[in-house]
Write a structure and sequence with these properties.
Layout: E1 4-5, E2 10-11, E3 15-17, E4 22-23, E5 28-31, E6 36-39, E7 42-45, E8 52-54, E9 59-60, E10 65-67, E11 74-76, E12 81-82, E13 87-88, E14 93-94, E15 99-100, E16 105-106, E17 111-112, E18 117-118, E19 123-124, E20 129-130, E21 135-136, E22 141-142, E23 151-154, E24 157-159, H1 160-180
Parallel strand pairs: 1-4, 2-5, 3-8, 4-9, 5-10, 8-11, 9-12, 10-13, 11-14, 12-15, 13-16, 14-17, 15-18, 16-19, 17-20, 18-21, 19-22, 21-23
Antiparallel strand pairs: 6-7, 23-24
C-alpha cells in the first residue's frame, strides 16, 4: 500500500514489500545470492529460496541489489534508508532505521543493528555484526564485529579515534623520514 516503484525495478519471487516504501529505478530485490560449493573440481551453485522481507517506510536508491536469503529471508527493517548502488547479500538482517550510504556492500549474513549508519563505499565482510546506533566512516573495511554506539573507521575498521591517531602518526613519521633524506 502506497509503495512507489520506479522504472525497471525487478522484484523476484518470495519478496514481501511493506507499506509506504520507495524503490528507485533499476533496483533488483530478491535475486539469487552468490554462493558456491567447490566439489570434484567444480564450483557448484547453491540456490537461494529464502526471499526478502522489506518492512514499512523503507527507501531504496537506484541500482541497488538485495539478494534473497538461502533458506530464511534477507530482512530490511522498517524506516531504513539505502542509497544508490548498494549491495546487500543473502541472509543479511538490517534493523529499524538503518542508513546505508552509496556504493557500500554487505557480504552474506551481515547483521546491522537498529539505527546504525554506514558511510559511503564501506565494505563489510561476511557474518559481521554491527551494533545498534553504531556508525562506520566512509571507505572503511569492516572485518570484525562493531559494538553498539561505537564509531568505527579505517581499513581494517577500528575505533575512529584510534584510526585517526594511527594515520597522524604514520604521516608524522613519513614527513620526518623525507626530511632526513
Amino acid at each position: 500500500k502506497n509503495t512507489l516503484l520506479y522504472p525497471n525495478v525487478v522484484i523476484y519471487r518470495d519478496v514481501k514489500i511493506g507499506d509506504n516504501c520507495v524503490i528507485q529505478a533499476n533496483t533488483t530485490i530478491g535475486s539469487d545470492g552468490f554462493r558456491y560449493i567447490f566439489s570434484d573440481g567444480k564450483h557448484l551453485k547453491v540456490w537461494h529460496f529464502g526471499g526478502v522481507i522489506m518492512e514499512d517506510f523503507v527507501e531504496v536508491g537506484s541500482n541497488t541489489s538485495i539478494d534473497q536469503g538461502t533458506f530464511s529471508p534477507t530482512v530490511i527493517g522498517g524506516g531504513s534508508k539505502i542509497d544508490n548502488q548498494v549491495h546487500i547479500a543473502h541472509n543479511c538482517k538490517l534493523g529499524k532505521g538503518v542508513v546505508i550510504c552509496g556504493q557500500s556492500g554487505l557480504a552474506g549474513s551481515v547483521t546491522i543493528g537498529d539505527y546504525a549508519v554506514i558511510g559511503g563505499a564501506v565494505n563489510i565482510a561476511p557474518d559481521i555484526r554491527v551494533g545498534n546506533n553504531a556508525q562506520i566512516a566512509g571507505m572503511s573495511g569492516v572485518t570484525g564485529h562493531v559494538p553498539e554506539n561505537a564509531i568505527y573507521g579505517g581499513h581494517p575498521a577500528r575505533p575512529l579515534n584510534e584510526w585517526l591517531k594511527s594515520c597522524a602518526t604514520l604521516r608524522r613519521l613519513s614527513l620526518k623520514q623525507s626530511r632526513a633524506v
